[in-house]
Structures are given as structure tokens and as C-alpha cells.
Amino acid sequence: MTVSQRAGDLLTLLRSRRSVRALQERPVPEALLEQILEAARWAPSPHGRQPWRFVVFSGRERKERLIERMSAAWEAQLRLDQQPEEVIAVRLEKSRQRIRQAPVLILPCLYLEDLDRYPDAERQESERIMAIQSLGAAVQNMLLMAYELGLDTGWMCAPLFCPAVVCEALDLDRRLQPQALITLGYAAADPKRRPRLPLETLVIRLDSQSDGEQPGQ
Length: 217
Hints:
Elements: H1 10-16, H2 30-41, E1 52-57, H3 60-80, H4 85-101, E2 104-111, H5 121-148, E3 152-156, H6 158-161, H7 163-170, E4 176-178, E5 181-185, H8 199-202
Antiparallel strand pairs: 1-2, 2-4, 2-5, 3-5
Helix pairs in contact: 2-5, 3-4, 3-7
């Protein structure tokens, strides 16, 4: 049974979760990693198909192979964006260090093989989008559970921009579509928190209870 270590209630947990870039070398206990992955398993998904798979690794050899292949792909993209050489060098090195320092890496992949099939492209695309949305929910479950257990995470989007490169580097089934890379471990330093937009900016109210019948009428 999971015992809360940081949050006294759900809202505190949601507000406290943060993105951490610098992690300690301290290993993550297998029991905690299993609880984090179990949390992902219970995310909502289209038709209950659970269209996600998670590749979990921590070995140096796999890390270095992934770093080498993704760095080459990202460097080419940065040059395409006409970024200055010094900026490219700094950004690449920061990204490499985040991956190297993480005790555990989790690669969430989209898996579409079990989804419903439709004769028209429009509905099939909607089905794919639903799968992507549900993968995001599964990742959020992992991030929250990790924080609850005293760990921290970082959500890196790099694999989304070079999925074939990631599959080749890790020798993965090509039916898996890498979507992100989650770094997992114990925080080496507290990150700066980015402010959240106020609710009045985020919520578009089209009506309210006062505009129509009151509850119970």
C-alpha cells in the first residue's frame, strides 16, 4: 500500500508536482518503480484498449546509444532552424546530461494495433488522437505517483521528433511510436516553478446555473 510522503490531499499533490532537470545518482527502488508503472496502467483510454507501452531502462550502454542517435537528429534540426553554433552546443550538452544523470528512463510509446478500425480516414484519425490523449493521461499518472513517493520526474519531448531514430537506437518493435522520455529519480536541486495562468484566462464559461433553472427545479 502506498503511503503519502508529500501531499496531504489530492489538490496539494497536483499543485506540488514539478519538473526536475537535475537528479541525484541515487538508485530508484524497484518497488517504487513498479508502483509508478502501475499508476499508468489505470489511466483512461479509448474503449479500454490501453494504447500505450512503456520501455524502462537504466543501463549506461543503452543511454549512450540513445544520446548519440538523438543528439545527431536534434543537431540537424537545430541547424535547420539556423541556431548559432554556441547555442546548439549548449542545448545538446544540457540534454545529454539530463539523460545520463537520470537513474531511470521511461519511454512512453503509442501502440495503435488494438484500436478500432474504421473505413474512413476522418474517424480513424480521431481514434488515433484519442489514443494520444490517453497516453498523456497515463504519463500524468506516473508523474503524480512518482512525486507522491518522494521522487521527481522530467518530461522530455525529444523522442516525438525522431521516433524512428529512437526505435533503432533501442532496437524496438517498429509498431511502437515513441512519444516522450521521462527521467526519474531523486531531485538534486529544487527547480524554479513556472507560474500558472489564472482560471479566468483558462476557463471559457458559456453559461452558468444562474442563467437557467436552478438545481432541483
